[in-house]
Amino acid sequence: MKPAIKQPGTLGTSGASRLKLFFLLITLIILAVIFFRMPRPCQEPLSYRIGTVDDRFGLSRQEFTGLVGKAASIWGKPFSRELFRAEPKGMIEVNLIYDYRQEAADKLKNLSYSIENTKSSYDDLKLRFENLKSEYEQKKEALMSDFNAYNVRVGSFNAEVESTRQQRGAHEHVQRRLMMEKEELNCIGENLQTRQEEQKKIADTINSMMVVINEIATNYNFDLVNYRDVGNKLGDEFCEGNYLSKGGKQTITIYKYDSSDRLVRVIAHEFGHALGLNHNDNTEAIMYRLIQSDSTGLTPADVTALKTRCGGS
């Protein structure tokens, strides 16, 4: 008689439910641990560090660090504690990058242009822009005409030189005339090159004016200016700073420096984004989408948004 083979038992309905509940509980515990271990805005300071500081701004790394620290401290004042902390390996990298925005402003300042973030400055720059654009067009047309005449003379000169070469020489008076013509053509060519360089400088100035005018126009919703015939295509953004969180990396990049107070305000605005704050509709607020003031103090609108974000902590 064969021995009976025992079959493995099956898990009852109540046992399966308990097992599912156990795994669900473990998952919730793990998620809770991760959640409470993650650094959160307002609960513990967000760390930052200084990255690139372009020396073309005329600011030392130490000076820039001090201004960043001042901007960071602004947000902690409503809670009487710091919301940002400088650390050697801080999560947010703060950079000062020199690009076309600052270069444009510097060029105009070197030409003694008065640049202010005001409507009167906008109107003055726009008028000078239109006048300079007209001057550029007139000189451009005259230069092209003179270049064409010069090229015709050079062609005739080269043809005559080739003709005398094939005739195996020329009379002495012809040689003297050709020599004088060559010297005159060289002088005209140098003059045309000088005028061409001057045109390039005017074009550079027009491009710089476009950047500055359109930056002011963006801040106040004025008309933008455009001149497609001059220089390279300019960027569409005229922001002075930018906060970016991508691929686990957070950066604040500042592109312009007009004054210490304005720089602090721009950095404070980007630190606000790092806290998770959105743009504010109050035009005086640090978190307003445009930088229309050099004030470095939080407005009631900023404080309200901050406490809403932080839960009043």
How would you explain this protein's 3D organization?
The protein has 313 residues and is α/β, with parallel strands linked by helices. The protein folds into 2 domains: 46-98 and 241-310, Collagenase (Catalytic Domain); 107-220. Helix content is 55%, strand content 9%. The protein has 7 helices and 5 strands, in the order αβαββαααββαα. The protein has helices spanning 13-37, 61-74, 100-110, 119-166, 172-220, 260-274, 300-310, and strands at residues 46-53, 84-86, 92-96, 241-246, 249-254. It has a 5-stranded mixed β-sheet. Helix 2 packs across helix 6. The radius of gyration is 34 Å and the shape is elongated. The protein starts with 12 loop residues before the first helix and ends with a helix.
Q: Helices and strands in order, then pairings?
A:
Elements: H1 13-37, E1 46-53, H2 61-74, E2 84-86, E3 92-96, H3 100-110, H4 119-166, H5 172-220, E4 241-246, E5 249-254, H6 260-274, H7 300-310
Parallel strand pairs: 1-2, 1-3, 3-5
Antiparallel strand pairs: 4-5
Helix pairs in contact: 2-6, 3-5, 4-5
